[in-house]
Amino acid sequence: MSRIGRLPIPIPPGVEVTIDGSSITVSGPRGQLHRDVAPELNVVRDDGSLRVERPRDDKRSRELHGLTRTLVANMVTGVTIGFRKPLEITGVGYRAQKVGDKLQLSLGYSHPIEIDPPAGISFEVENPTKLAVVGIDKELVGLTAARVRATRKPEPYKGKGVRYAGEQIRRKAGKAGKIGGKK
Question: Is the pTM of this model over 0.85?
Fold first, then answer.
């Protein structure tokens, strides 16, 4: 049996969970999330917690068991605490600023790049080189952070670009130059 899939999901106070067949809705202080779970699995509500059960032991049910439990647990975490993905900008003249709800990035191109946040996502700019993507849906937060990073990926020679906070960039040595003259 799946070690992750059989763990119960505690429901904190202030969170309302509605189960309607294979559809689950979680609402809490930060908002509301909805997801359709696989029909092979059942989400069961116990006293103060949720459990994901699989009635059959076929391959597909086993594959989806832990995944479904993690997705539902992320929904509960999202409506209570939320998710945050910090990003760092490295490079001379590279900076970020918030213009209304949009994120405006100056990354060495001839024009500034503006990124509109999807519904339920917001940008926080701590200083011109540190920003964060914040929201209640973990999948959407990660996808939006990846979109921001893709505007200028960190390059391996000087490390300039947009990177996740704490991300290690493998550096390459540059050209060795002319050693020993022409032959």
Answer: yes
